[in-house]
Amino acid sequence: MTLSEIKNHLKNLDTIAFVLPDGSLVPNHFHVTEVGKTTKHFIDCGGTVKQEKKVNFQLWNANDYDHRLHPEKLIHIIELSEDIFNLKDLDIEVEYQGEQSIQKFGLDYKDGQFLLTSTHTNCLAKDKCGIPEEQLPKQEEACCAPGSGCC
Asked: What is the pTM of this model?
């Protein structure tokens, strides 16, 4: 999901709900503690230099059970971030506290809820990394493309 897509969805909502991949809800009293731009500049195992830019949201829970982030407030935070960081319409990644460390998720939307989607590692240079073709995971085993219906 991109920044413009989340803003369009938020305009039509009265409340915000995030659903984890296991189907459980992020508690209603979550805070969006960060909206930022992340840049990853890296080299893959085949020697190709790449750069990836994303918008990052960090969700956080406190014992502030009366807190509810309303859609118009999140839109305001996003728009402020767009101005300050000169954000483009980038894909969003979401950070949320897991059992022992921060987990990163993709973001989707369905039936009035934001879905935190699982992310997976993948070889970015399969043609150059030296792993025999028969040992590479099949596409459906490696990861699913957003909207493909396989996940």
From this structure: 0.82
